[in-house]
Design brief:
With 554 residues, the protein is α/β, with parallel strands linked by helices. The chain is built from 19 helices and 25 strands. The strands form 6 sheets. Strands 1, 2, 3, 4, 5, 6, 14, 15, 16, 17, 18 and 19 form a 12-stranded mixed beta sheet that branches. The protein has a 4-stranded mixed beta sheet with strand order 20-22-23-21. A hairpin with a 4-residue loop joins strand 22 and strand 23. The longest helix is centred in the N-terminal third of the chain and has 21 residues. The relative contact order is 0.16.
């Protein structure tokens, strides 16, 4: 089979204006970025264009080196639903350059279920992440300049919490010293870098209703504390207007297409292991106004992305999802059952049954949100008939439907059965409820997630987290939503604990009150907000020739 790049290069793309007509959009509703990409001027949309569509979330089991194919399934399902006569739009997050050049890869799907033009989307796209990086670092520059110019706010240099960001994996920048070189360069202090997708600016972008709402939230960001302990905000630095100005175009969602010409709206991209893992509210609501069905996704496994979509994004945007598709593979479940990666192509029914506990817990967890659940078995060529039959039997024993999908190899045709079963579920009445209730305190929310989603027996707090918890209560922020930063590879905070571990201790080492976006980030285990590159990163195998032909980009 051809590589993803080769398949993408052979595809015939529709002009963006033709694609826009499918959504009843006119030329004045778009800002074109060449012939195949555009931003949507969502302010021009009117609710009367379509009755608000059905919202379907695609999530997955915990990721493994064997691959699961969540984004591929999102795209394949969207194309299948269009083939079945339903006006469907796929909504996705934008890829970060960190994993593109690192180890995880891009975020455009794969095989014959891709969004295009994949090279542009995986690289600089329409510049949204660069705008976020610049906006974030403008706040950093203003903060250090304020200190240099006399520090009228009496900022405690030891209590500056606002790090800088860049959209690349670079472990050497996790902890740095800035302001060296004498009095002309400011005051030396300890600083550091996060990856752009972990920025609070990214989180605010994805949970804002519009540019003015974004500006109001940015003004509330806490960047430091004074020597008397009072918070210092972006409003105190007087740069929220400049930050919003930098983001005026980045706030607009991006329109592209799947390999079969289905509309795809891609916007925002917070990681789910260190942020809330969902594309923007603006993109989702735009798609709902223009489509009968919107297929969206949330990052990593359902214990991270789906939980945050259902407990943070949906309440923030008053969204009511209609169904949930949970992606799993035979290979990944065998990996959870103890099979080494090199042996996953060999039939092993016992390992499949042993590893099924991971999928079973995700099914049980997602049912708690009172949504219909459909399991997509993303088929690989090495899957045997006995393995596929066994997996379908195990899923049926959980009381949910399943479907085998081959959209990677067959595009939308490979997900027609998945689409038909989903349409049946979408006829059901739903009574969606977030699991984590707004009136709960931080401790109650963490206990709820630990017991109901992760399977932990208790939550313990580091001394630092205990102190931060006291400060959160004193600041009357104790009922804010909680966004858990946790390894994606396990239900626990230990990436080596595969399957469905239970009765473990979840350790919260830090609680960060992100007062702009309005939630608390609970950092657990050894999770990092600035990833590093592997020994042999993907960047080592990429190149471009004199004709602009790219190789090695998946």
């Amino acid at each position: 089979m051809k590589t993803d790049v080769e398949i993408a290069e052979s595809a015939k793309l529709r002009p963006i204006l033709d694609l826009a007509k499918d959504l009843n959009l006119k030329e004045e509703d778009l800002i074109s970025y060449g012939p195949y990409m555009a931003k949507i001027e969502s302010k021009n949309l009117v609710e009367s264009k379509n009755k608000e569509g059905k919202l379907v979330l695609v999530t997955a089991i915990n990721p493994t080196p064997a691959g699961e194919g969540k984004t591929t399934t999102n795209i394949g399902l969207s194309m299948a639903l269009n083939k079945l006569g339903k006006k469907t739009t796929s909504t996705l997050r934008e890829p970060s350059l960190g994993p593109v050049f690192g180890i995880k890869g891009g975020a455009c799907g794969g095989g014959y279920a891709q969004v295009l033009p994949m090279e542009n989307i995986n690289l600089h796209f329409t510049g949204d992440f660069h705008a976020i990086t610049s906006a974030h670092n403008l706040i950093s520059a203003a903060l250090d300049n304020h200190i240099h110019q006399g520090n009228a706010l009496d900022i405690d240099l030891r209590r500056v919490t606002w790090k800088r960001v860049m959209d690349m994996n670079d472990r050497a920048l996790r902890e740095v010293i800035v302001g060296l070189g004498g009095e002309k360069n400011g005051f030396p202090r300890q600083d550091g870098f996060d990856i752009t997708v972990a920025s609070e600016i990214m989180a605010i972008l994805c949970l804002s209703k519009d540019l003015m709402d974004f500006k109001e939230k940015v003004a509330k960001i806490t960047v430091a504390h004074t020597r008397s302990g009072d918070p210092v905000t972006v409003a105190d630095l007087k740069v929220e207007g400049a930050v919003a100005m930098l983001m005026k175009d980045a706030m607009k969602p991006n329109l592209v297409q799947t390999i079969e010409g289905t509309p795809a709206i891609i916007h925002g991209g917070p990681f789910a292991n260190i942020a809330h893992g969902c594309n923007s509210l603006i993109a989702t609501k735009t798609a709902l106004a223009l489509s009968e069905i919107v297929v969206t996704e949330a990052g990593f496994g359902a214990d991270l992305g789906a939980e945050k979509f259902l407990d943070i994004k949906c309440p923030a945007g008053d969204l009511k999802p209609d169904a949930l598709v949970l992606v799993a593979t035979v290979r990944a479940l065998k990996y959870n059952g103890g099979v080494k990666q090199k042996d996953l192509g060999q039939e092993n029914l016992q390992a499949l049954e042993d590893g099924f506990v991971n999928l079973k817990r995700h099914i049980t967890n997602m049912k708690k949100y009172k949504l219909p659940v459909l399991v997509c078995i993303n088929q690989f060529p090495t899957d045997s008939k006995k393995e596929l039959d066994l997996l379908q039997e195990l899923i049926a024993s959980c009381g949910v439907l399943s479907s085998v999908s081959t959209c990677f190899a067959d595009g939308g045709d490979g997900a027609l059965d998945l689409g038909e079963k989903l349409l049946t579920l979408l006829e059901e009445e739903t009574s969606f409820e977030p699991l984590v209730k707004a009136e709960m305190t931080v401790e109650e929310k963490l206990n709820c997630l630990a017991h109901e989603i992760y399977g932990a027996k208790e939550v313990v707090y580091s001394d630092q987290a205990k102190k931060q918890l006291e400060e959160i209560h004193q600041a009357n922020f104790a009922h804010a939503p909680v966004c858990v930063a946790k390894t994606q590879y396990s239900f626990s905070d230990d990436p080596s604990k595969l399957g469905a571990p239970k009765d473990f201790t979840l350790t919260v080492r830090e609680l960060v009150a992100e007062t702009g976006v309005g939630f608390i980030v609970a950092k657990t285990g050894a999770i990092m907000t600035m990833p590093g590159l592997s020994k042999d990163p993907a960047a080592n195998h990429m190149d471009i020739d004199e004709n602009g032909k790219i190789v090695g980009l998946f």
